Amino acid sequence: MAPGPGGRPDRTSISRRTVVRVLLQVVTAASLAVNAYVHAGLAAAFDPVGQQISQGTLFRLEAAVASLAALLVLLLGRRRPVWAFAFLVSVSALGAVLLYRYVNVGPLGPLPNMYEPVWWPDKTASAIAEAVGAVTALGGFLITGPPRSASTRAGARQGDKGDGGGG
Q1: Nearest-10 Cα torsion for 102, 107, 110, 111
Q2: What angle separates helix 16-42 from helix 80-102, to the nearest 10 degrees?
Q3: Angle between helices 121-144 and 80-102 (to 10 degrees)
Q4: 83 within 8 A of 140, measured Cβ to Cβ
Q5: CA–CA gap between residue 132 and residue 108 (Å, rounded)
Q6: What single-letter DSSP state applies at residue 50?
């Protein structure tokens, strides 16, 4: 915190890191929400694709997981595991759309063949949202940093005996 009058920390000021984190939370959650919206909207149209597990079911699952990730990022954005989860959701969805756009993988066990060698508006919007979400979630993960020890939170300097970092 920035020192206020008398050398004391000014508790009303917001750190730049906090502003950046909140901005990343909003953009990441919005990207995940677009991903969820597109997949939920397309699910019914893709129900006929597949035998054991339909592509529509996979789209609904993607929508649910992306929605959960968006909520977690908004509510618990100070925690690194939340950012890691959001990154994995976004990057895996982006990887899937790119893979099935450019490679005819064929069916994989119970999963249907989702090869679709064209770009169309919903698919493009989803891919862009997934890419933005992956980048912003990675940024959130990096700026959040590992949890501080109790002695660091209490004000001991890094390397003090109180935090086990030196002698």
Answers
A1: 20
A2: 40
A3: 150
A4: yes
A5: 28
A6: -
Tokens for 72, please give them.
Answer: 């977690």
- Spatial contact of 156 and 163, defined as CB atoms under 8 Å apart: yes
Indicate the DSSP class of residue 67. H
DSSP secondary-structure letter at 12?
T
Amino acid identity, position 56: G
Extract the tokens encoding 23.
């901005």
Please choose, from the candidates 86, 62, 103, the residue with its C-alpha nearest in 3D space to the C-alpha of residue 137: 86
pTM of the predicted model as reported, rounded to 2 decimal places:
0.80
DSSP state of 148: P
- For residues 35 and 103, give the distance between their C-alpha atoms in angstroms, rounded to a whole number: 21
> Mean pLDDT of residues grouped by 10 in the chain (167 residues)?
56 83 98 98 90 92 98 97 98 97 94 93 97 98 78 53 43
- Using an 8 Å Cβ cutoff, are 133 and 29 in contact? no
Instruction: Count CB atoms within 10 A of the CB of residue 123.
Output: 16
The DSSP letter of residue 5 is: G
